[in-house]
Amino acid sequence: xxxxxxxxxxxxxxxxxxxxxxxxxxxxxxxxxxxxxxxxxxxxxxxxxxxxxxxxxxxxxxxxxxxxxxxxxxxxxxxxxxxxxxxxxxxxxxxxxxxxxxxxxxxxxxxxxxxxxxxxxxxxxxxxxxxxxxxxxxxxxxxxxxxxxxxxxxxxxxxxxxxxxxxxxxxxxxxxxxxxxxxxxxxxxxxxxxxxxxxxxxxxxxxxxxxxxxxxxxxxxxxxxxxxxxxxxxxxxxxxxxxxxxxxxxxxxxxxxxxxxxxxxxxxxxxxxxxxxxxxxxxxxxxxxxxxxxxxxxxxxxxxxxxxxxxxxxxxxxxxxxxxxxxxxxx
Amino acid sequence: xxxxxxxxxxxxxxxxxxxxxxxxxxxxxxxxxxxxxxxxxxxxxxxxxxxxxxxxxxxxxxxxxxxxxxxxxxxxxxxxxxxxxxxxxxxxxxxxxxxxxxxxxxxxxxxxxxxxxxxxxxxxxxxxxxxxxxxxxxxxxxxxxxxxxxxxxxxxxxxxxxxxxxxxxxxxxxxxxxxxxxxxxxxxxxxxxxxxxxxxxxxxxxxxxxxxxxxxxxxxxxxxxxxxxxxxxxxxxxxxxxx
Lengths: 331, 243
Prior knowledge:
The complex is a heterodimer.
Chain A: E1 2-3, E2 9-10, E3 19-30, E4 33-44, E5 48-52, H1 59-66, E6 74-79, H2 88-94, E7 95-98, H3 110-120, H4 125-138, H5 154-165, E8 172-176, H6 184-199, E9 203-207, H7 211-217, E10 220-225, E11 228-233, H8 235-242, E12 246-252, H9 258-264, E13 268-274, E14 277-282, H10 285-299, E15 303-309, H11 313-327
Parallel strand pairs in A: 5-9, 5-10, 7-8, 8-9
Antiparallel strand pairs in A: 1-2, 3-4, 3-6, 10-11, 12-14, 12-15, 13-14
Chain B: H1 3-19, H2 22-42, H3 47-77, H4 79-85, H5 90-120, H6 127-151, H7 155-172, H8 187-190, H9 194-207, H10 215-240
Helix pairs in contact in B: 1-5, 2-3, 2-5, 3-5, 3-6, 3-7, 3-9, 5-6, 6-7, 6-9, 6-10, 9-10
């Protein structure tokens, strides 16, 4: 169980049986700086789990601990039922990691990079060749097969780095800001590939600063702020937790009195009109729309245009960050 | 998957990426070849006294430098992290990296040796002891280079760190003069330098005589240094490779 920034208690959804990653009480400090403080979460098998937070929140530290690059100070964690400290080689066989910066061998060709990693993961010669060809094809890099990695564009480098993480068909893939710095077509193509990887049954652990991307890709999201997990759930759940008002914009066929409007629509708590367009703030959008329709009928008006705007994940994220700042200092 | 096979793949990749490149091979051979030529021109009668020392020095500088450069470069480019993410142990990485650096050192030293044999008529009386000296020495010096490389971030830092070790031991290890000719007070210090034993093994291999009563003393001493360097390098990798 965890208390969110809004004060509500959110149940951890993992049940252990179908979880790909289980993290309990994870702590890590760099000297006096606490990078991770008692972080708990569960990633279910086959889901895309978004791990979001501002710079310095502890996202990469978490990935480095989970992938065995960094030792934790405290906490229990298992990946596919195995502990990375007790059995690092077995865990590394089951995971693939795409770090924030592409880290393949610049002097080696795309094909040789993949084949070399295939060698390290114990693939047979035939399996290496087949898997390399399959990945180069899937990632649209077949025509760059013999090109040295350093000569590729940034988008191609990211694609090959993702392909490299999949050479051994891992059960879990960690993607650390995979689309950072990519142009729109490259980022879109990479998001499509992430969806394909996930559809094929691979669990995806994704960090990103692009909240629209997180919303589009992730089944569930955890928001980390200064090393603390502050909320977790689906994008819709997180939005709802911080949602305070829905904005309704309406254009009536004729003039309406603001006092009468507010009296007829108790769900609307503020109303203003600019050049015939009403902007109404409502705590409950469903109730507000029902009341507005009743008001229109009573007044003999017609609705020419109507629309609602709800809190985006980005709005929710910003609200969570602001609330977290207000909550400081932590005990 | 056998970790030994993984070490072999790591070595092969390093030879392909770094050690097999012509500029590196040339660099490794030119310096000792020119030095040897200078010694020969100065006094053709005594060049054989210095030859084992220069071959050992080729190993020392070639292996420590290249191992340190390769690992520091891979740390900077992030490719060492890629290796750390693979299902291999730290000791497998150390073995793979050290083996490729050692192969480079042995190859360049052999080129110098063959050059001396063909051009100046040098003979190797005991090829087995000579080879053991080359292999053990290359192992120790490669592991020293690897250890230095993971303790620092930049190549120049690794070189500076190595120079603190390399230059002092050059003067105390019988490289430029036989052990017998070293001042008495230096001799006890020479006994704690792995280079001393490597030089004496190579000297025994070339001339059939060495400072110690038996080449076995040197073999055991260098093997001891090898075991120590292996442990230290493994520990250094585990603690510092990802920093």
